[in-house]
Design a protein that fits this description.
The complex is a heterodimer. In chain A, 73% of the residues lie in helices and 0% in strands. Chain A is mainly alpha-helical. Chain A is globular, with a radius of gyration of 24 Å. Chain B is of the alpha/beta class.
Chain lengths: 491, 514
Amino acid sequence: MVFSSLFFLYAFLPLSLLCYVFCRSLKAKNICLLVFSLIFYTWGEPKYVLLLLAMSFFDWFFALRIQHASPDAAASRKRWVVLSCIVNLGLIGVFKYSKIICSTFGIMPAFVSKIALPLGISFYTFQLLSYVIDVYRGEADAQEEYWHVLLYAALFHQCIAGPIVRYKTIAEELFEFRTPWKDLPDGIVRFSTGLAKKVILANTCGSIADRFLLADAAISDLSALSANLSQLSKTSVAGLWLGLFGYTLQIYFDFSAYSDMAIGMGKMLGLHYLENFNYPYISKSATEFWRRWHIPLGTFFRDYVYIPLGGNRHGSLRTLFNTFVVWALTGLWHGANWSFVVWGLYFFVLISVEKAVMKHFSGSSRFTSALARIYFILITMLGWMLFKYTTFSYIPVVFKGLIGANGNALTDFETHSIFTSNLFLLIFCLFAVTPVFKAAGQRFASFAKRSWMVQNVYNAVHYFIIPVSCLLISTAQLVNASFNPFLYFRF
Amino acid sequence: MTEELNLNELRALLGDSEPAAAPPSVSSNPVEGQAVSPVPFVPAPQRAEERRVRKVSRKKKKRALRKSVPFFAVFAVITLCAWMIPLRPTVSVRENRNLDRFPSFSFSSLLSGDYFSGIDNWFSDTFTFRETWMDLGDWLEGFYGRSSAVLSGSPAQHSDEIPVTTPSAAPEEFSAAAMSEQPEVSSEEPVAEENSAAEDEPHSVARELSEIDLENEYVAKSTCIVMDGSVYPYVNFTQFYADKYTDSLNKAADLLEGKARVFDLLALRSTSVMLSKSVREYMNIPLEEDILDYMFGRMQGKVNCVDSLYMLQNHNAEYLYFHSDHHWTAVGAYYAYVSWCKTAGVDPVPLDLYEEEVFGPYTGTYYGHNSKRSPVLEDEVHTFNPPGDITLYINDGRDSPTYLGFENEVITHTVTQDYYASFLASDHAMCTFVNNDIPNESAVLIIKDSYGNPFSYYFTQHYKYVYAIDYRRYFNRSLTDFVDTYHVDDVIFCTAMFLAQSDGGTQLLSNFIR
């Protein structure tokens, strides 16, 4: 089940909210949340729910052992935390990375090829790891109740697609005290705008990207490699750029929309998750980009990998090595393929070069800022090629096509047609990746405070017209998306 | 004190308003956490402050609810509608299809996740007021952008380069005199079909293939251009299948040499007929002119190739193709028939002599490409019933050898207003026209797919027996067996170009040509 499905919207969500509202105590509310979270996970992954239950159990147990160990028994505490890391990373290794490891060594046992990636394993493993490590560091207390740990890991808002919520940031609201009503209207706005972002912007940009850069299913079909390469080599220069632009937008809208919906649903219940994105495409450098893109993941690697490795306190070579490790792992976290590692290292190179070069420049003007933004968005777009194509053979063909070195036309009918028939939407997307709408909303809000009348207009627009419009538009598009002429029964 | 209270203040003043069962403290150690005790005495000023905070809290809750209730009201209405099971549609008139059904339960489907995804699909596909939502979706897409020609459907499939062939010999000339050389047929009515004993391995493979809806597959994978209210599919060329098709037809000509003439008429896409060559070249659409040249070039001297393209192009101001469907209209089929007449050396019967009927509105297979960005027009289906004492027999050879008699009847207006099914009552394994006005025993076999349905009617004016068999569904006899049994004079292959370029289509044809 995904948030942007009609079943979730009009069956799962209302039912879970209704049950939640009727529960009086916090404990009852949490039990309700846990039951619905397990249903949610089972719906998408009936078999692997056992893995989620087991991993939560292990980490609940390890954290308790750490907590109950004598403060003097540092070795014992360390043993448990190491064991937790081995179990968590071992399981994610088996379920996520065994295929890439085996294929790298040219072996593929039958049982390995049958392993399917469990839903959300990257997210909940990191959450559980952060829980055990925070307990070990004394930054959080271990949960006595197993189901509390399970609830933290399985909470359907963020279990399968983030944001990665660290235990110490959510434990208080989850288990002690919630102010459920305060942020309800904001939660509604956040959820509904996230839904529209996914259904309208991300899906449309995705279809543009697939048209010019090939759909993921086609890319992963190795038997069609030569036909695909031939097709890509004929795609016009403008078409490839349009496809890459569409993919750049899609990947951001898709991921941030899920985060918006998760954050929105959390707010409706009084749970506050960390922001995942902060307009990453307005960044002027790779360093800034990673402060704005998938923020909790960057924080996770900083706190649990970079700093424990010594950070930047042991000389420039060691710092470089630490940065290398962090970016290789960041890439690997995103997918079990070497192309993701290369993508991570691409940012390692960019950040290292930036650090070396930027210190010689000081001050910035509007012009240089604009240039830096253009430079960086181009760099980011090219980087997404590594994300899109899990087979390296595609990348040189697409790259050559982007500069017209395949003998491909500058533009063609297909590009012109797709561009003009989505022009207004693409312009809207350009604004949506910047804080323009947010700034306009804030201005409107501060202006609205001047008079009661304007405040009411603001409330009506912000809390009713926008979310209801988003809901209606998204529903219409979701119903439309179910159209499938393949099932046409005439023949 | 500001109205905004922080969490700790509220907790201190309100106590555990939503208490958990002995939760451990996060920031303090467990010993401190356990030391928390109930507050037996609260001083008066604190009680006043507590009341004030409660009042503020109630006020905030009220305000939050006031902002949220209108949204939840709309949300609740849609949710309630979604759960009105009797209001859920089961058939989509707009898309001409049955909607998904609630999945049946099994433990294996439960474990694999298919059961849950089936429920998801059913819920989405049969959403209450589905057509209204789709209209709203279409209307919204109008704001995405505007274009005189919109690309729609799946991304374009890979297409091979079309090899250039040099004609080596002129097509064989046929005289009209051959038409009169008819063998004798013993009875007025066609022979009842019986299952042939020759049920071999390729036969069963073909039967399996026939279960796949090749045309639907094609439609689903089509890249289309929506322009001026009509949908034009992209053209693909796959040399391997084109060669396989032409080899099969050459084999048919060899097998029937001295028995019957073999004609090939490839039914073309609307794109090649309705759009000019320069427009198609601009759109990077492979030219069916070149494909025809290549394929006919491979069949020269054996098969009588009917080139209908130029005839159709010359009449493309008429209603030759449906705006919203992949088929040609009966008028389009008529001009294909006229092209055949030209090749066979007979005079076509004017269309005016046929009795015309009109049905509609009709929305075809491509109507799903309809959007406000470029709306697709609805169609009408014009049928032309041939003049004379003609009887149409339909024999669904797969299921039953019995005849279903129809008397020049326009058949089958299904619940989905599938008016194209008016021609030959949709796709049946075998249909037979008998024209009692023709004194001789002439017979033609038309081996066709759905394009042949309106096409077959016109041959009733030239042959006493017109046997139209659907090579995707007919498995009772082989080609030679059929020609021998029914004393067929002419064999016409009327195959959609896209099926002549497909794996399934060419396999089914080669299975029949034995």
